Amino acid sequence: MAAMSKSTERRASGHVRWGLLLFAFLCTLGLVAQASAQAIFGRNKVVYSDREWWVLEDGWLHLYYYPEEEELARQTLAIAREAYDDFADYFDYEFDEPIPIILYGSHHDFKQTHVTPGFVPEGTAGFTEFVKGRIALRATGNYADLHHLVRHELVHAFMLHEMADIHNERGLYDYIGPPLWFIEGLAESVANDGQPDSDARMFVRDAVLHDGLVRIPELWTIQGSYLMYKEGESILDFLRLQFGDRVPAHLLDQWWRGDQFEEILKLELGLDYAELDERWSSYLKRRYYPEMLSQRSPGEFGTRLLSDSYYDSAPKLIELEDSGRATLVALSPRGGTVSLYEITLPEEGDAQMTRIVEGGRKAEYETLPLFRSRVDVHDKRLVAFVAKSGQSDAIYVWDLQERRRIDDFAFANLRQLSSPSFSPDGMRVVFSGLAEDGFSDLYIFDRQSRALRRLTADPYDDLHPEWHPREERLVFSSDRADPLGGDLALFEMDIASGGLKQLSSGRGKDMEPVWSASGDEIAFISDRTGVRNLYIYAPRTGASRQQTDITGGVYMPDWLGDDEVVASVFHRGNFHLYRFPLEQEGAGLLQSVEATERVRDPRAKPPLLDAPALPASEDTEARAYDVDMGLDIVSSVVAMDPDLPFGSGAAVGFSDILGDHEVLGHVSTVGDEFKIDDLNFGVSYTDRRSRLNRHYGVFRVNTLQYQNSLVPTRLETRTGGFIGGTYPLSTFRRIELSSTARYLKRESSFDFLDTPGETWLWSIFASYVHDNTLWAWTGPRRGNRYNLTVGQSFDLLGRGFDRQSLQIDARHYTDILGSVIVANRAVHRQSFGSDTQFFFVGGPNDLRGYKWFSFQGERLTLVNTEIRFPLVERLALRLPFAALDFPSIQGALFNDMANVDGRISDTGWIGSFGFSTYMTLIPPLALRVDWAKPHNFDVSVPWKVKTSLSFLF
Length: 953
What we know:
Elements: H1 14-28, E1 54-58, E2 61-65, H2 70-91, E3 99-104, H3 107-110, E4 126-128, E5 135-138, H4 143-169, H5 180-191, H6 198-209, H7 226-243, H8 247-253, H9 261-269, H10 273-288, H11 291-294, E6 303-304, E7 313-320, E8 326-332, E9 339-345, E10 352-357, E11 376-378, E12 382-389, E13 392-399, E14 404-409, E15 414-422, E16 428-435, E17 440-446, E18 452-454, E19 462-467, E20 473-478, E21 489-494, E22 500-502, E23 510-515, E24 522-526, E25 533-538, E26 543-546, E27 553-560, E28 564-571, E29 574-581, E30 622-624, E31 630-632, E32 649-655, E33 661-669, E34 679-687, E35 693-708, E36 711-728, E37 733-746, E38 757-771, E39 774-776, E40 779-795, E41 803-816, E42 820-832, E43 839-841, E44 855-857, E45 859-872, E46 875-878, E47 883-886, E48 889-901, E49 906-922, E50 925-935, E51 944-951
Parallel strand pairs: 2-3, 3-5
Antiparallel strand pairs: 1-2, 1-30, 4-5, 6-29, 7-8, 8-9, 9-10, 11-12, 12-13, 13-14, 15-16, 16-17, 17-18, 19-20, 20-21, 21-22, 23-24, 24-25, 25-26, 27-28, 28-29, 31-32, 32-33, 33-34, 34-35, 35-36, 36-37, 37-38, 38-40, 39-40, 40-41, 41-42, 42-45, 43-44, 45-48, 46-47, 48-49, 49-50, 50-51
Helix pairs in contact: 2-4, 4-5, 5-7, 6-7
């Protein structure tokens, strides 16, 4: 909607005008826009289908779900009921209002939520928001993961509500909450009952053993990182061990006694940060240093393949030559987005990497899962990999020789796909699929007949299937032997009969199996010793042998010939690719249990292998969801007209539990004194239930129009209504349409520029927006942004207020040399008609070296080029009263050019060049200093130095 303010109008004859009015009115009845002003750029949160929602209520627990996931919803409610009883006892606190829990069957469905207006990152499993206390979470098909996630988020709910009640009872409403490491550490520690999982132990152990542990007083420097979460959990586990299991709950009870956590810590436990840090770090050293005597670094078992570190994952062999030269494919986030790379390992020297498919830039490759899914290779040529495309994942087949995609397939009911594996002839693919109901099963897709066959149909998590290199059988990992405990075992399936054979058993997670080229052995990963290590299973003997015993962790192995394995290894805070030579059978580090064989129909009920039934809330009656609006805290301003109002104001907003319905109200004034005639007000309603965001509203706007040197030249009052719509074509592209009808009254003006008077105006606007830019805190790094907007306003009474407008805004960003960014922008804005609009240029946002809005006209062309580079990567200060972490300081060489033409200005081409330093405060807002040399391509003026708050383009 912001694009409206850059539009212009033209005159139309009466019969054409009314004909267009009727046509556009009929067109726009179903096309409506978002309630808040739509930015001219930005990616889109796409709702792919309008869901029917239901509610299960159990006491204060209200669980919202859609019908396809009812079985999962009842399991989730049973978990929540048990967790609520546990935490009510632990925190000694009971709720007196409902706890809304919104359940999504997959992460891709979760990304469509409107509980939060922002985007849900790939690594986010759930969140608890502050305004309405809502818990939103997604399933993965794994019951144990769901159990942990529900408990984790309910800890947040208990903490937030209890702290609010304790402070409200004492009349304290501006208290400072706990640090983030305490908030997340408490949730993990209590949810896990003080027993961290193997990944948590791996991160902390690696940090302790390799001097990477961030001390408690400095944890703010890694705010929001995964290591901060895991260190927070470790600190809370230590507090519970040293001072009693309920000490975190006691600290929350007493939070009202101080302003900072360190102050509470001193009052209640007699410790400051430094003392707690010394005790905690000493405890961790006593716990983990002895492991150095029995465990070794990955370099003592194998060889690191790449000299740099970019969280490389899922390696798969393409070809291995007799000389030892090998070619692999792997996933890596180098370059800022997860992409598919080809890696050549020469006989000597550094490996070479070539990007095959770039993720995060196109709709068909919106995201590539880094650790959730493996890739597969067939016949040294075809690569199968998974990428999110639209509402769900798709499997793509890429031809390495032709360097193009030759096949792809997705399925309506399967949201997430994982680990595709080719059949021996390459014409079929087996994979793991997470359905709309939130359960994970195995499927086979025939690339010739395009037929999909379901291999399993049960509530268990079936992962990482791998087709035997010669036979009609596969191996996979599943929790079907222990769904409640979450342990994983290896299973073999006969594809023709569907019969299962359990290959491993015992405590721990046996996962990510892969056949050797001969089909005689299986490499897999297991954390049965508490650390993720590489194992080899021999089907002939039914025994496995341990190949590594490292202090980090091994992920996603693949075979390099018959006597080597390549894998991703966590070591020294990062993931690296290693190749490990294998011990021969009988010489492994550890022998495991014999296999247990049971053949069953995987589609049969009751559950397979006598696993315990999953608990569910069967007796709770469901009801249809009723929209119930509640008050929100609103910071945005309603956009209601092509010209936005000036002046201060207040906004209130209401939304429902799901965030699909929103009502915004806005009141402001254009004057310094309160006058009824100067008031602006507006009310809008937005419906976000479907892909098309519908938006309606009414308004009254007093607008000060500026024509020259920011001196107001006319006051307009506009009263009317609007209807509009935003339709996202993908995450990266959208179409915006809107229509506004209003009564205009213009009280004063410059007569030679425009006409005073009153009339009825009707406007239509259309925009096409594309944005696939990759952002860092310092600004856009790579990608393109386009906005094309056209507008037409009709004076329905024929009094000379017609306008038309055109806006083209194109931006391109390229990263070179890693951290050096070349940014280009080209803008053209033009106004036509008898009541044209003026566009302004000048100042640090567009034409540096000139005063703000120095030039104005009906036609504006602007071209900017910047070369951005880091000057100071990080500036962190620890002061006695606070810790300050400043953003990095960037430098930029710039060249600005503009041409302004119209009734006021006719500048010809003017410009400036120079140097800038800036610090990003909140992207894209930056504090900057510009040294600019203004010129008109003939005569230049002295250098200008200006400090400002401005926006990065």
